[in-house]
Write a structure and sequence with these properties.
383 residues; alpha+beta; Tetrahydropterin Synthase, Chain A; 3 domains; five-stranded antiparallel beta sheet; four-stranded mixed beta sheet; 12 helices; 21% strand; SPFH domain-containing protein
């Protein structure tokens, strides 16, 4: 009984696997799908009857259509045999006996006899496994991250340690599909009907990536704020999605080797919110005040403050108040020194009394005569 079933299964499978298949992307995929098996289109508009073919055999001459934005990964008995990154239609050709087809010109007698005998050895099923998988080469969005408590890093601009609770999202890109499949994708996803999605909450591998991103946030903030090329400003994080994405990508590469070991890279980020701890908020307020009082704007603000103080002192404190303001003004170099440079004092006018006094001294010393003294006196007095 078992022998007849094996023979019937072997012959029936061989007949069904002679048909060429048309492989394409499965319907209803989420936009965040990263890896999934190509599926045969058994029927189209009510036509087609290739519904009994083996699920793990691709017949020679079958066509596989690669859409824009995807790569095609081919596997034979669990090993990656080829990768195609260009969109278009491709024809499957394999030396494996199970893929031979009379419709692909592989011969009638040798195909039936060899395939039936090989399948009979395995109880009627093919002794080989072939598969085609599509890998997304697009940016994969909506990968979210967030911290439940403060993370801390050394800030290059503030010159001290700062802390914050943050959340946001990033876009991920598969930059090396072969590394990605070999080193990261679990075997359970290399099966027909399975979809590897980074945003799937039940995907344990994707959850591991989430934990690694959270663990890399503090180093990423430190890399960004300590990079002079990015201005060292913590406040720029939410406006510089590409710059912070590079810092975050560098941080996860240093800590977890995403690109070199897994073929993954972070390409963009969005910081939805940053809630600084109380100490950091106070420090940022101080920095904002210092920025506001810097340069010409600070000079204007200080002049306005002194003017307001003079007005208040005049209204409330009388002369004593004005004396106090004068002392304060002196500490800053005076109000006038803030407004404009002090002009040099004009030379004092000639003093006639001093001139006459000096002339009398000269007369007494015999340096001038009485007539000279009388002439100088008349000139000094305008006579």
């Amino acid at each position: 009984m078992g022998l007849r079933q094996a023979v019937a299964g072997a012959v029936g499978g061989v007949l069904a696997d002679q048909w060429k298949d048309f492989y394409t992307v499965p319907a209803g995929l989420p936009t965040t799908a990263a890896l999934f098996a190509a599926v045969p289109r058994g029927t189209n508009a009510g036509r087609g009857s290739n519904t009994g073919a083996s699920s793990n055999i691709i017949s020679n001459g079958s066509k596989i259509v690669v859409p824009e934005g995807y790569g095609l990964l081919l596997l034979q008995d669990g090993a990656i045999t080829a990768f195609v990154a260009e969109p278009g239609g491709y024809e499957w050709q394999s030396d494996d006996v199970n893929s031979q087809s009379i419709f692909a010109g592989d011969g009638l007698v040798s195909t039936f006899i060899r395939q039936s005998w090989e399948r009979f050895k395995f109880g009627g099923q093919p002794g080989s496994q072939q598969a085609a998988f599509f890998v997304s080469l697009k940016e994969l969005p909506d990968n979210r991250f967030g911290t439940q408590s403060e993370i801390y890093w050394d800030d290059g601009f503030l010159g001290t340690q700062v802390g914050a609770v943050t959340r946001g999202s990033y876009t991920l890109k598969i930059v090396d599909p072969i590394l990605f499949v070999k080193n990261f994708v679990p075997a359970s996803y290399l099966q027909p009907g399975q979809v590897f999605d980074f945003t799937d909450l039940d995907n344990a591998a994707a959850s591991q990536l989430f934990n690694e991103v959270v663990g890399s946030l503090a180093p990423a903030f430190s890399l960004y704020t300590n990079d002079p090329g990015k201005g060292n400003r913590i406040t720029r994080l939410q406006q510089d999605s590409l710059g912070f994405a590079q810092s975050l990508s560098d941080a996860v590469e240093q800590g977890y080797q995403w690109k070199s070991d897994r073929g993954l890279a972070i390409v963009k980020t969005t910081i939805v919110s940053i809630e600084y701890d109380p100490n950091t908020r106070e420090l940022l307020k101080t920095v904002q005040r210092a920025d506001a009082l810097a340069g010409a704007r600070g000079n204007s603000n200080l002049q306005a403050s002194v003017a307001q103080g003079i007005q208040s002192a005049g209204e409330n404190g009388g002369a004593a108040g004005l004396v106090g303001v004068g002392m304060a003004s002196g500490m800053f170099g005076g109000v006038g020194s803030m407004q404009q440079p002090v002009a040099p004092a004009a030379p004092a006018a000639d003093d006639p009394v001093a001139k006459l006094k000096k002339a009398k001294e000269m007369l007494d010393l015999g340096l001038i005569t009485q007539d000279d003294y009388d002439a100088l006196k008349a000139k000094a007095l305008g006579l």
